[in-house]
Amino acid sequence: MTERTKTGFQDVRDEVLKRIQDRVWGQGDLLPTEQDLAEEFGCARATVNRALRELADRGIIDRKRKSGTRVAVLPVKQAKLEITLTRQLVEDRNAIYRYALVHREEISAPGWLASQLQLAADTPVLHIRAMHYGDNQPFQFEDRWINIAAVPSVAEADFSTVGPNEWLLAEVPFSTAELSFGAIAADAALAEYLACPIAAPLFQMERTTWFQAQPVTFVRMSFHPGYQMRSRY
């Protein structure tokens, strides 16, 4: 690598990536130490560390304390999924968004939810069901549970005009999220909400979020037939 007056972490990252792509370092090969790379590139070790961290986050290299840094075997690109407002999903399709509250109820957490979120059986939760539309056509049915202890103000929140997802993103941050995706067959209730035949194949996403180890919300979102999720990496 040609010496420069100042070598940035991007320079180190790009050169390391180039060498991996050119098979200078093959899958499973041990890379030089951070100190050796810093001396080669004429930069601080912290610069090398930042460059390698970014490559590790992208799944290109594996970094393990005491055993060094190796080129990942069959490196996998990681797609990032953002928590996107349903309103935005609809409007990105050049459709007019509409929201409707279907059901709202404060109850004790049912057994399956208490078990999933590790809550006490009598923990109060807010159960909300809502519909989202695009050009007045069913787009998504939302079935959400909110831990009131994590967001006390939710007990007084008005969800008649603003959906719980928009409200939560504005009201409380989240530090961890878990997502799962699957295909389901529409039952009678979903068929009615989404205006589709019973047993029609639907895309369903479940998401749980936590803030500082405290569970905030669990939501199950069922989309209209034919919905596709896209991600870029």
Give a written overview of the molecule:
The protein is an alpha+beta fold. The chain is 26% helix and 31% strand. It is built from seven helices and eight strands; from the N terminus they run αααββαβαββαβαββ. It has helices spanning 9-21, 34-41, 45-57, 86-91, 111-117, 164-171, 188-193; strands at residues 61-64, 68-71, 97-108, 124-134, 137-147, 176-185, 201-211, 214-223. A six-stranded antiparallel β-sheet has the order 3-4-5-8-7-6. A two-stranded antiparallel sheet has the order 1-2. Strand 7 and strand 8 (214-223) form a beta hairpin. The longest helix is centred in the N-terminal third of the chain and has 13 residues, at 9-21. The two termini are 28 Å apart. The mean pLDDT is 89.
Question: How are the secondary structure elements laid out?
Answer:
Elements (H helix, E strand, L loop, with lengths): L8 H13 L12 H8 L3 H13 L3 E4 L3 E4 L14 H6 L5 E12 L2 H7 L6 E11 L2 E11 L16 H8 L4 E10 L2 H6 L7 E11 L2 E10 L10
Antiparallel strand pairs: 1-2, 3-4, 4-5, 5-8, 6-7, 7-8
Summarize the structure.
This protein is of the alpha+beta class and about 230 residues long. It has seven helices and eight strands.
Cα distance spanning the termini: 28 Å
Query: Largest beta sheet, briefly?
Result: 6 strands, antiparallel
Which whole number gives the mean pLDDT?
89
Model regions low in confidence, pLDDT < 50 over at least 5 residues: none
- How does the overall form come out from the CA principal axes? elongated
Number of DSSP-assigned strands: 8
Put simply, the count of helices is 7
Radius of gyration: 24 Å
Amount of beta strand = 25-35%
What share of residues is helical? Answer: 25-40%
Given helix and strand content, the structural type is alpha+beta
The helix/strand order is: HHHEEHEHEEHEHEE
Strand order of the largest sheet: 3-4-5-8-7-6
